[in-house]
Specification:
extended, 80 residues, mainly alpha
């Protein structure tokens, strides 16, 4: 998938990846998703944000996470 809504500009937001050259960073969009579990409220507060922006921000952020297996000790207990 081409991430055509993610832009970087060294003179805007210190070069952080942004959404469509807006002053809205990918990091901020991820934070907003955690803050606004109801997307309708999110869109009311940030009407410039579109569903495709959110999707691409999530994809972009996920590319920076390592996919690895972490071994747990044998005395690790799960909480039910």
């Amino acid at each position: 998938m081409q991430l055509d809504r993610i832009t970087t500009n060294p003179t805007c937001m210190n070069g952080q990846p942004c959404i469509r050259n807006l002053r809205l960073t990918v990091r901020r969009v991820i934070e907003l998703l955690a803050t606004y579990p109801n997307r309708e409220e999110l869109y009311q507060e940030f009407p410039e944000l579109e569903n495709e922006d959110i999707q691409q921000a999530l994809i972009y952020a996920s590319t920076y996470l390592d996919d690895r297996i972490v071994e747990l000790s044998s005395n690790y207990e799960t909480v039910a």
